[in-house]
Structures are given as structure tokens and as C-alpha cells.
Amino acid sequence: MKINPQLRRVSPLLPAYINIKEGKRWGYINTSGQFIIQPQYEEADDFQQNGLAIARTNGKAGMIDQTGQFVIPPKYDSILPFTEGRAVVIDDDGYKVMNEAGQELTKRAYGLIMPYQDQRAVFADTSNVRFLYGYLDERGNERIPLQFETATDFKDGKALVKINENEYALINRNGETLQTYPYSSMMSYSEGLIAFSKTFQDKWGYVDEQGRIVIQPQYTYASPFRDGRAVINMAEGIENKYGLIDKNATLLIPPAYNDLTQLGEQRVAVGMARDPERPFAGSQYGIATTAGGILSDFLYDSVSEYQKGLSSATAGQTTFFIKQSGKRAPSLPIIPGVGTVRLVGGIIQANVDHSLAYYDQTGRPIYQPNTSFPLDDQYRIQIRKYSPNKDYLVYYPKVEGMANLEAQKQVNLTLQQKSKIVPIPPTQLDFGYYGEFSVSFFQRNLLVLKLEGYEYPFGAAHGMPYQVHVPIDLKTGTIYELKDLFKPDSDYVKVISDIIEKQIQAEPQHYFPDQYKGIQPDQPFYVDENSLTIYFEPYEIAAYAFGFPSFTIPFKEIMELIDVDGAFWRAFRGG
């Protein structure tokens, strides 16, 4: 496949999106902010070096060329970026490998395939009731069959695998064992060394390829080496003590930091706990050299990998570039919002505040997504942003176009409240929160907005999702409740409870059947043209991983209960 070189020479194509009532629609702009490929995809990634980009339509992923045409049809659930000329694709059957021509190389699907590294890809599947790992070659063949308990990527023709409990091995690309190691835990092979822990209670040290201990166990954590350096931790309690060593175990940066990350280009980020009493709440970062020289104060909330002498950093609610000196690049702008920036095609791509925009190097906007969109000729929705704190961000809707302005005002106040637009202090929080909305359904005078969010307490294993649907009559301003759909004398609670009970009994493995006690009169719900959907909160009747358990009931199954003369029904189905 050949790509027209003029397309690349004139201007790189950059992903960008517009907001419409169906959601985001992605296309590609040039460096002047003009759409070269019109917005049409549900998702779109950067173009890769082979001139292809992952794009999604109708819920499926494919690959487009720089004319916007699908050269690999959108038939996959997911596609990972190409590495070494191969991409991992996922469909209903499982994981497969595809080449740049779209040909599937694997003879069957697997339970897992990782991207190619050093001519091999880790794959995994169930074999004799055990989940085991092996390696595929570049043709998608099982070069090293399923046999390992764990497997890591190849580096310099070698990879570390776990054979059995307390037994690891270093293998070559043909699967031949080069050396075995009698340890309970080991990190991946890198630069001739492997971090190890003899037992789960012991500290970490390093062995060479032959298994000789070259750095005695003394660390509570030890990472693989990178560019001759490794991050270690010497903490004994909850207070971290990260430092940096070389291959002689010399402490280049003393073990005194809450966090320490290698950034490439001989730089590291060293982090001090924002709150020493609560180190899990995060760090403030400074920049140091891999030789141990501290270059900056602890000025940054986050710092990214260096690329061509620049790193993306944030402080408060701003994002900007810093140089290898650890100081902000004064010739490049400060972008409002929290996220990352990078230079591409001579302009700045800013992924900040869960949005994507482009700026020139003076900070002038080149492209920003629209902040309002029409529902029809009368009604519009404005996208409002609430960001009182770097850890709290909500995009919420404001409805416009209602004839009754007082009703419109009350609707928008309700939407703010349900979107969690609440007073938030500008100081450090104990949690992070992100909220957004989408149009779930719009027909005639009925607008159903889905408001959702995610609250993550710092230090927790996981956060808690939030979801509520708001059915609004745009003619009257009424926000309907579940009871409004049914005849006043109907026993809709029992009927719907029984229908859901049968759905649960059909698939009991997904639920906690003993916890289901039926629905409440004000049970969370939403409607579309043909059905009612009832849902429950996480943990309410199923495990957290099951999200919001939902049950769809076609209207035709409950028509005898529906008040077809009621305002709710007539708002979207008419009379």
C-alpha cells in the first residue's frame, strides 16, 4: 500500500472532533485547523508511521488511510497500534494478529495477545484448565507453545518466564532455556540484569544472566534497569523511600522520595508527598538528572516523558512544556487545563481537561471543539465546564430554546445539581472526580440526558461510578419520574419487578439473587422509542465489575400498564 507523499509534505493530518447530539464525531485537520477528512468517525487515533490510523464507526474499529477510506474494514471490537508491522485485533472470538495489509496471521483466536516486541508477541490461553503463556513469531505461528505461568517481552533476544512456583527461566527466541533461577518473584530481563526476591517476605536485589547475585537483596521494590539506572524503594512502612541506583548499586539519588520516575534523556522526576501524613494522595515533582543532580524545586503536579528535549508538565490548572533544565520553556505557551501537550507538525496538540485542542507556538488557538450543538431547529445544548480544582472537572448540559424561560431555568438548575455542580474548595482534595453527559434519547418534546461521572478516592483500590438519566419535557419543563409512564391505578412496581426477576433467574451467575427485592416506585430508568430500561446501582444486586445492572423491557410487553394519554407518553410518542 502506497501513501501519497504529498499528503505528508503539505501538512500532517491530526485527529479532531466536533460535538453533535449523537456524541463526538472525529475527523482530521491540517495544521491550519481545517478539516481535511470530515468528522464522521466515533473515534479516531493519530496516523501511525505506516500511514494508517485506527478509526471506529458503528461500534467497530478498522483502519483508514490518509484519504479517510477504510482500507481495513471496521469489524473489530478493538485494534491496538502497530508494532513491528503487526497489530493485535480483538473480536468476538478473541485476540488475533493482523499485518498492515489487513491479513489475519494467527490461525485461531486466543485469550490474550500482547503487542510485538523484539520479533515475538506474548500470547496466552487456557490449556488443560490452566491459563498459560507462550510466544508467537512474526507470522503469527506459535513459536514457543503455551507452557509458562507468566511471560515478559523479549529484549535483545531474551525474555524472562515463570516455569513453576519458585522457578523462573531466561529463554531465547526459540524457547531454549539459557538459565533458571530459584526465586519466588522476578521482574523482567533488562540490560543484562533481573530484579529478584527469594521469597515473598524477602527484599529485592539483582542477578545477572548467569544467576549470580550482583546487587544484594536490600530493597522493598526494585524496577528493571533502563539506560543503566533503576528505581528502587527502601520503605518499611507506608512512607515511600524511592531512590535511583546504577549497576554498581551506587545510590545516585538517595532513597528519600515519595515517588521517582525515569523520564528518558537522562532525566527523572522526583516526588515529595503533598501531605506527609497521607503519601498516597500524590506528589509534587521536581526534575533531576540520572547522575543525581537536582535541577528544579518541587513545582509540578505531573511530568511526562521527555521527547526531543521537552517534557509536558502540569501545575495547578495549567499545562506547559519544561526543558531538560527542569524549568518551563518560556518560548512556548501555558495552556489552561490539566493534561498533556506535545509538538506535532510544528503546532501544539493539547489533551487537557478530557478534551483535545490545537494551538500555535504563541498560544493562539488553531482548533477547539464546539461548545454547543443543536437538537433540532428549536432546541440546543450548551456544553458547560465546571473546574474549581485540578482534581474536580465536570462537563454539564445547559438546555436552550424552551419557550417557557422560567421552566428552562428550573430545568438547568436541576441539571446542574444532578451533574454534581457543588461547591468545591480550590485546595487539595481527598479524591478526584470527572463528570460528563450525553444525549441518551431525543424525540418530539422528550429529551433524555445521561449524566455520569467517576469519583476516585486517592489511595483506594477503585473508585465509584455515578449515573443518572434525566427525562425532560422540553415543552413544559417537567422532569418525569417512572410512575409518570403508567396508569395511576396500575401495579407497575410488581409487574416490572416480576419481569426483572425472570431475567435474573435466566442468568443468575451475573447477580446476587438473594439481594434482589424488586424495584422501587422511583427506580432509576430511561426510555427510548421502543422500550423501558430499569437499572440498579453498583453493588446493589451484582458485583462491582458488572457496573449498573440494566434490564430492558419492550413497551409491547407492558402496554396494558402504560398511560398512553399521559403527558410522559405523549411527549415522545404522541397521541
UniProtKB/TrEMBL annotation:
Residues 483-556 form the DUF3298 domain. Pfam families: DUF3298, WG_beta_rep. InterPro entries: DUF3298, PdaC/RsiV-like_sf, WG_beta_rep. It comes from the Bacteria. This is WG repeat-containing protein.
